[in-house]
Each structure stands twice: as structure tokens, then as C-alpha cells.
Amino acid sequence: MATGTEHAPTAGEYIGHHLTHLTSTGHKQASVIDWSVLNVDTIFWSIAMGLLGIFLLSRAASKATSGVPGRFQAAVEILVEMVESQSKNIVHGDRSFIAPAALTVFVWVLFMNAMDFFPVDMFPRIGELFGIHYQRVVPTADLNGTLGMSIGVLLMCIYYNIKVKGFGGWLHELFTAPFGNHPLLYPVNFAMQMIEFTAKTVSHGMRLFGNMYAGELVFMLIALMGSTATAAGFFGHVVAGSIWAIFHILIVVLQAFIFMMLTLVYIGQAHEGH
After folding, report:
1. pLDDT single digits (tens) 169-217
2. What residues does each domain of the chain span?
3. Is residue 134 helix, strand or coil?
4. Alpha carbon of 195 to those of 189, 201, 203, 225: distances in Å?
5. Which of the 8 DSSP states describes residue 272?
């Protein structure tokens, strides 16, 4: 790891280095929103995981048979049936696009979350061989990435609000719900609607970011145990890392499921009137 100094990095320097993004202007610290730069590492790994998900799902579709399915096809069929069942229970309307979108969201977020299972120093070390000294490989541990996805869900909600209710119907709902159709209540209703849309979008992205960012930090702290060059440190690193990785499997899958379910819930709400 290149820190610009000759001495071994301290714990703070080590964590700070691993929390620094590769950006369009060089690099920057931490996971704050900055509209003046692009987090190149987040964009790269998001696209890479999206393409991986498309490849695996398309491969399963092309290899599908009506006979006894193989293990891979059976796993994909179980996943598709689960998403279809959830979308059917939540969204009352045409689901020809919504169910595949929910499946895409689940697989995409799952793969991005799963990048946390790779050793903390693996990809940064590989990047250094190509002159890339800063790199974060978990896109969902970047608030810019998770809020970007939640804004995408917001745009889908607006689209379905207009599609289902018509632009005039949705506009009428913005000013008459939830407190009623009265001119004096129009500003209050509109303000409440804007607060609701904003709160749902921000909480949607923040929930995923918070869980994955915390998990990323724990892996970094565990990695520091192995840098003590002691038997206890090495033993603690292996044991603690193994235990946390096993527990983290639940977090990775659960957060992908929650993000997908909230996507369905918000789109389902767009199909219903107040």
C-alpha cells in the first residue's frame, strides 16, 4: 500500500487509505456526497456487478430446460419465483416490467454487497500494480451509489404515479392528500407529499449504505489484527474474520432483500390512491 511515507502505516492511516475513493479528479476521503467529482471506483464496480448479474441470469434463461433442472437453474428459478410472489402480493397491476426490475435490483445489490467478502487488501494491491493507489470495491458502502439507486426508484415511482393515475390525477393527489380537498389544505398536503417522497428516498439509500459501510469498517479493523505480527493477532484475525464473514452473509443477503422489498412497496404505493 502506497501512503507516501516510508514508515509502516498506522491504524488510522490504514483505515483512511481504504476509505479513500478513486475519483475523476484524483482521490478523496470518506463517503460524503460531492457533486463536483465522480467516484470512479464506485461506478466501475457497480457496472461490473451489473454486467455479471445480467450474464448469469441470461445464461440461466438460455440454458433453461423443461426437464429436471440443474442446480444453477433450480437456484435461479427459486429466486425468480420468490421475487414474482413478492411483487404479486405488493403490486396490484401490470407487473410485466416491475417483477423483472425487482429481480434485477435484488441480484445487482446482492453482488455489490458480496464484494465485501474479498480480502480487504486484495483489489487495492492489484490496483497498485497498475498505478491505482486508491480504490474502494464495495459500491453499496458509498452513499453516492446507494442514493443514486434510491433516486432511480423514486423516478420509477413518479412514472407509475403518472401512468396509473394520469398526470392530472397525480397532480390532484399531490394537493388533496392526505388531509382532504380544501384550498386552505393544498399547501400543507403538497408539503407533506414532498416530505414523504424525500424521506422515502433518503432512508432507502441510507439504510443500505449504513449497514454496508459498518460491515466494511469491521473487516478493516479485523484486518488490522493480522498486522500485529503476533500469534494472538494472527489467530484473532483468522477467527474473528471467519466469524464475521459468516455473519456478514446474512447481512449481505438481507440488505439486498430489504432494498428490493422497499422498491416493490414504493412502486406498489404508486398504484394506489390516497
Report:
1. 999 999 999 999 999 999 999 999 999 999 999 999 999 999 999 999 9
2. 11-270
3. coil
4. 10, 10, 12, 44
5. S
Cite the active site residues. Answer: 203, 207, 211
Residue among 198, 264, 33, 16 nearest 124 (CA): 16
Contact between 33 and 205 under an 8 Å Cβ cutoff? The reply is no
Distant-in-sequence contacts of 33-39, Cβ < 8 A, 24+ apart: 33/143, 33/144, 33/147, 34/144, 39/136, 39/142, 39/144, 39/145
- C-alpha–C-alpha distance, residues 82 and 75, integer Å: 11
Within 13 A of 97's CA, how many CA atoms are on the CB side?
A: 6
pTM for this one?
0.89
Sequence length of the chain is 274
Pairing of strands 20-23, 26-29: antiparallel
| Cell 471506483 -> residue | 41
CB 39 within 8 A of CB 48: no
